[in-house]
Amino acid sequence: MTSISWEQYYTTNSYKLSNIDELDKITQMKGIPKLPKTTFKIEYNVDSGGKPKVPDTKTATIVNHRLLIENPTVMELTIQADSLWDYQSGDSFGVVCENNEVLVNKILERLGVDSNSSISISDTEDKLPKLLQQPMSIHDLFTSILDLHTFPKKPFFRMLAESCSSQTEKKTLYFLSCSLGTSTYKDLKQQFPTLLDILNLFPSCEPKLEDLVQNCPILSPRYYSISKSNHISKPNQLSFTFNVIESDKSKDHKFKGLCSNYLFDAATISSLKNIDIFPRIAPIKFHLDGNAENLVFICNGTGLAPFIGFLQDIEYNKLEKNVVLVYGHRTKSDKLFQPELLHFQEANICTIIECLSQDSNATYKYVQHSLSFVDNLMESSIYVCGSGEMGKGVDDALLQMKIKTDQCTLKESVEFWNEKTLKGTYVRELW
Fold first, then answer.
1. Residue 344: Cβ-neighbour burial (10 angstroms; 0-12, 13-18, 19+)
2. Considering the entire predicted model, what is its pTM?
């Protein structure tokens, strides 16, 4: 994996505001949002309650990592936790990630606050998020609670404007927060600046910690599908698969996925071996239909992961099934789980149809291109896992197949697939 360090990532990207010349022509700004009301109060130098922890999480230890492909980097991790919850193939779980230490330290230095100082936060309107209700150090607050990467909403820039000593910067922040500056706001968002980058764009900005904490989003967990059957895994262990996201958004901007790189670092740096996890309660169960004779699995990229567990279950339980796996990826070199897929083919567990989006010699480019060649497709139990774009392509293809096969209307086709969804014979897990 060719990667830039976090230090390089947080110091080499440059950011600029488009259409900023329009400011000189504006005599009156319209659509400036109301200044967010500050209801948070911070008390300093209190006894810390220790590092904050998301309720109902378990601390899991990484016991093994496996590089599935190198470019782009895709990794399978195996983790272990005491009294791990019962799970099935197709289940997913949440990972509580943390902000990188380099970014946290640079932001705290920029704000001029003592990272080791312990604080207690209260809310005069009694709406304090649960994660903020225990005393903690400022360092832990910025490491484990606040989202430092998600681009803030417009009221955040309105709040920052009030803390600027420079009138030019204040006017620019008003512009970003109002309707006149929407184009500039969207353009800055596409550059993926962190909180540090935004603060550094406006050097005279000195926000109060209360204002910053109240208007900064809370760090969200990331969800991953389990990629190995519980019949194959050791007790209290599970395995999952993820892309390590790092890309060039432009010649001046690189992008590193927060959680994927957090997991990569946790697996490959000896001092970071534990992660906090919790089971995901999904609105729709993505579980294998044991009664279905014909099964069709459709996926792209790491959407293959839960189907590895499904196929392991079928083999372990000696189930008699007609299974077709439609698997989309870019080229033959980025095929995931190659040993497992070869085994499933040789053991006659499934038939595999590969779709290669960047191979000009491929029979099928995208998964939806191959569906009309799958026998008994509309009578099968169909599972789809992968990107939302792929899922839409599959939906459109299936709608047209039903119309063409049965000479029915679009409305009738929609009703048919909705009925299969309600029966649990057309199930999708998309992101």
1. buried
2. 0.90
